[in-house]
Amino acid sequence: MGLPLRKSKVDAPPPICPLTECMSLLRGAWAPNVIWYLSAGPRRFGELRHDIPRISARVLSARLRELEGKGLIGRRVLATSPPSVEYTLTALGHELIPAIKAIVEVGTKLKAQVHTKRRPAGK
Amino acid sequence: MGLPLRKSKVDAPPPICPLTECMSLLRGAWAPNVIWYLSAGPRRFGELRHDIPRISARVLSARLRELEGKGLIGRRVLATSPPSVEYTLTALGHELIPAIKAIVEVGTKLKAQVHTKRRPAGK
DNA sequence: CAGGATCCTAATCGATACTG
DNA sequence: CAGTATCGATTAGGATCCTG
User: Is residue A19 in some structural domain?
Assistant: First the structure.
């Protein structure tokens, strides 16, 4: 019958459901990019599209609406000749920047290691 | 003809491609959970399955292999009667914990706000 | 117990075309 | 310019069955 299951020693704070739920803040491949490019100040739809070349208007629009709904970014319509819309990062949205930076840092180290060591393994 | 596109003011460090690439470290909804539950020490396949009830064996197996390939976790086969396998977080894997914590923190604040303020907006 | 094989659903994304 | 609508391709994920 094998080994008995040991109780998890991870302290309760994020008991799994919250974790998954919170991670969905950055759902999709592009949400982190949107947040990143808004970190330096307001940015218009077309500008973001230009910042993130691979993103389609459809997905960018979806992410922006999603992040706005979650309170991570703000939306402001400008009264210009051709109507333009400006997006800004909220205070809460700014708090995600350190997290993104942390992940990027690990990813960078990881790539450096793969090139240095003899254990590629990575895909 | 509208407004000219302003140059992005975000400092170059993670110029987008690296960002997306690094974010894929936590690809999938379950990778963060796997890393989280390994943060307290070695854990066997079945234990992880028990830790993360909603995950299927197929996906857990896929994530474990993926994370192992990236060098974030280690795999060790134990010579027990019914063969068992133990997974551990590597040093690099441990470095992702702060990032996950940061995201969870924002998510928690977000939920608190939704309950407090009058701006649900969220889905 | 660990995990591969198959089948199938759901979410995400890109390209294109079209609207206010 | 700032989107929305539709379609098809890709992919994560779940369920079930099966093997070492």
Answer: no
In the chain, the amino acid numbered B88 is T
Residue pair B16/A52 in contact (Cβ under 8 Å)? The answer is: yes
* Nearest residue of chain B to residue A21 (CA atoms): B107
**Distance in Å, alpha carbon of B56 to nearest chain A alpha carbon:** 15
pTM (2 decimals)?
Answer: 0.81
How do residues A61-118 score in pLDDT, each as one tens digit?
A: 999 999 999 999 999 999 888 889 999 999 999 999 999 998 888 888 888 876 665 4
Boundaries of domain holding B63: 24-118
Which residues in chain B are contacts of A97 at CB distance < 8 A?
none
In-domain check, residue B57: yes
In a domain, B45, yes or no: yes
Which CATH number do you get for residue B108?
1.10.10.10
Chain A window 25-54: which residues touch B at a Cβ cutoff of 8 Å?
25-26, 29-30, 32-33, 36-37, 39-41, 43-44, 46-47, 50-53
pLDDT in tens, A25-47: 888 889 999 999 999 999 999 99
First to last CA, chain B: 36
Question: Is position B4 within any domain?
Answer: no
Amino acid, single-letter form, for residue A13: P
The tally of domains found in chain A comes to 1
- Distance between CA B98 and CA A102 in Å, rounded? 7
Q: Which residue in A22, A51, A66 is closest to B103 by CB distance?
A: A22
Q: Which nucleotide is nearest to A84 (CA to C1')?
A: D1
The helix (run of H) or strand (run of E) holding residue A88 is: strand A84-89
